[in-house]
Amino acid sequence: MIRIIATLAAVTWCALIYLETRQVSEIPPHESVSEMLEKLFSLAEKTAKKYDIAGGYVGVIEGDAIYGKAVGFSDIDAGRPIESDTAFNIGSVSKPISAWGVLALAQDGHIDLDAPVNHYLKKWTLPESSFDHDKVTIRRLLRHTAGINIHGYAGYESLDGPISQPFRPIKYAPKTLVESSQTNYPIRVMRKPGSKRVYSGGGYAILQMLIEDISGMTFSDYMNERILMPLEMHHSSFAPDRLPKKAHAYNIQGEVLPDMQFLALAPAGLYTSGGDIGIFLRAQMSNGAAPLTSEYMAMILAPTEANARYGMSYTRHPFENGVLYGHGGNNSSWHAQIYFIPQTRQGFYFLTNSTTGAQWEIDLSCAWKSWVLKKSAKAVCADSLSLVQQISFAAAVLGLIAISVFARAMSRIKQGTARVRLLP
What we know:
Layout: H1 2-20, H2 33-50, E1 55-62, E2 65-75, E3 80-81, E4 87-89, H3 94-107, H4 138-143, E5 162-163, E6 171-172, H5 177-182, H6 201-215, H7 219-228, E7 249-250, E8 256-257, H8 265-268, E9 271-273, H9 274-284, H10 294-301, E10 315-319, E11 322-331, E12 334-341, E13 346-352, H11 360-373, H12 377-380, H13 382-422
Helix pairs in contact: 1-13, 2-11, 3-6, 3-7
């Protein structure tokens, strides 16, 4: 027993030391674009092997130019490599693109961004609460300041069959987002609208229902026709079955995971390729590009009244030469991250289909940011490193709890065995 406890303690301590001493890669600011790309893409290949990342795509934007690097496989068993048109689920990075769809409705004169969203909803409306629903405006939903609950959506293994729930009665997924918003993920107003910025996938689910009610189309069809095709994002869709080259998702053991099905598409349901997300980011940095004018593009990036560190979903990090905008996404084993600076027209992003792909946020994002912001990687990645420290602390606590529980269990077993031996 002592040997097993010592092993658990050693594993916990090693995890703690590893996370606390996590190295952050840097690219010196004096490096040229070509030198930066060579180092960044080399780092992507190196870390993919180090962390057993099944596959991914890394992109860099410099003005009108988009540079990309595909790494690993979309299907390991079939030996199918990641390519520029391979589609990944990008989780919450779906939100900024969904915001374009809402702003296109406003630009076309169909909605007023500062009007109560309830004025436009038909199939579902906000349930009664103690708050003034007239203050739940479309603009506040876009900015996460409308007071709506539900941080995120986990998705379902199937929308047609039973949901696997060990030791629980068999359940089935809701058939529509309206039903989901009433049952499995009941949406409510939880705080005074406009008082605070609190991230809400539920707010973007409401915006999805708004688009469908106003356009008379499915959300995926509207987004395809009004946003994705005008941007020439031909390998992107909120209806992933339409995409011929979709990557598999892999867990930390390298096993294929089932694709999660989403009713709440606007918050987390977009599948897109490395080539396409580069097109989107380049357009986001343009001074007006189809399908949005410069006026509406500026609205997306403007600081939120409740918290100037955010725009419409994007984080905002002002620095001497402009503002660095960012957004991350995680669904099951999918990970995505985007960054861009409109003032200098520079951007960086990665997409992965692997649980361990989250490591790229520290290895690749920090390296690019150190180069573009001309600061040390530790300085520009303080938030990420703080998260690592929190994880390391949690790992240590969980490890110690596991050791304590195991020691008690073994002690009781030993005491029970001793009592049995003493019986006549």
